[in-house]
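Hey, I was hoping to borrow your eyes for a little while. A protein chain has come my way and I'm curious about its shape. Take your time with it, there's no hurry, and the full record follows here:
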Amino acid sequence: MGKAGRKDKNYSPEFKIGVIMDMREHFLAYRETVRKYWGTKSRTEEDKYLKTLKGWERIFLEEGAEGLMKERRGKSNTSSRRGRPPK
């Protein structure tokens, strides 16, 4: 279980792409973009969204817009196991 009162927000791929494209087209800094889209009130809250935005940009640069459409939460379904192989 998470912290009490914690709200995990799921953003649509369209919103993510729109934010990244706006940031890149208008040459906005990370903090400017966070203030524009989330209207943060405290530095702590701003830092949380800053981390999210940097993650989205990294995915966008590495994989393109399709990368932002993938669900990335939870364990991956890889069949390769780590550690010692079973006997």
About this structure: The chain has a mean pLDDT of 84. Residues 16 and 58 are 12 Å apart (CA to CA). The first helix runs from residue 13 to 25.
